[in-house]
Amino acid sequence: MRLLLALACFLMVAAAPRAQDFVDDAGRRVALPSAPLRVVTLHDSDLALPLLELGVTPVASTGRLDSAGKPFLRGAMTLVGTDFAEAGIGFLGIGVIDAEAVALARPDLILTPAAGATPVAQLQRIAPTVVIDDTRRSLAETYALLARLVGREAEAARLERRYQAQLTELRRAWRPERFSVAVISARGDGKLALDHTYGALGTVLRDAGFRFPALIEAIPPQRQAVVSPELLPELDADFLIDTYRNDRLEPPAAAHRRLARVHPEYCRYLRACREGRFLVLPRDEAVALSYAARSLAIGMVTGMLARQAGP
Question: For residues 127 and 17, what is the distance between their CA atoms, to the nearest angstrom?
Fold first, then answer.
């Protein structure tokens, strides 16, 4: 009997996924399962969305609430065609997440952003927990890391091949290096927010070869700068792009209204605005950590060039 019990224990250990050591962005050493089956994510567009795109459905995730109080994953329905209810994902809530709710999902891996509100020590007692800091690497590097954590490198490589083919055609047809572009966002405090690389949209613009104003180029990679509206003339470019909060059901005109509150005469100082090359795009898709978002950005950028750039 003892021999049979020992043999059964040996077979269970042998069949269990082997753990691999990993040092996360908080400098913590984590023993990761090699093939996690029940992943919990504590950010929707930065963690849950790319996993869904890779073919991994989290068992539970944080998210947002719409005006009717229904939970949703930011950008998921338009980019990957699913959401909490359709995918059977448990909704954990918003902000500080109750560790007991996470434990009820029985995760074998927890992914949390570096700025997450729930203490990592609490999460680690439930399951191996990886802290991911997207200010430490590019969007592409963060995506590759997520694919590695869930064992979906082959799918990520396929998506990357498609993206590179799309970029090659964009460069061949329109030679974006001929043009400059600035992505801006007016803040509620009367200042302007600028990113070195504005999410999926900014990644496409940089990978395609567009030029940027010196004020944007001076921002370190993966960082944002907040500047006075007096510097608006320094953002003059061939094309100007702003975004509206479609997750909050804003109309595109909301972006113009925000900019007018920051600088009532903004169009006077920006050639792209005066000449009709000021685009306002949906923010969910512009910033998402997603290859679908990059493909959509390529389409929008191609339309921008086709309409205005000429032969």
Answer: 14
Q: Does residue 22 contact residue 29 with C-beta atoms inside 8 Å?
A: yes
Task: At 82, list the tokens.
Answer: 């699913």
- How deeply is 104 buried, as exposed, middle or buried, from its count of CB atoms within 10 A (0-12, 13-18, 19+)? middle
Residues 6+ apart with CB under 8 A from 75: 44, 45, 49, 247, 284, 285, 288, 290, 293
Cα of 26 vs its chain's centroid, Å: 19
Q: Which two tokens stand for residue 278?
A: 């000021």
Distances (CA, A) of 181 to 9, 118, 170: 62, 38, 16
Over range 207-235, report the average pLDDT.
95
One-letter amino acid for residue 66 of the chain: D
Residue 245: closest CA among 75, 14, 95, 88: 75
C-alpha span between 187 and 184 (Å, rounded):
10
When pLDDT is averaged across residues 69-89 and rounded to a whole number, the result is 96
- The number of beta carbons lying within 10 Å of the beta carbon of residue 275 is 12
Give the length of the chain. Answer: 311
The pTM of this model reads 0.89
Separation CA 175–CA 179 (nearest Å) = 8
Question: What residues are paired with 130 via a beta bridge?
Answer: 111
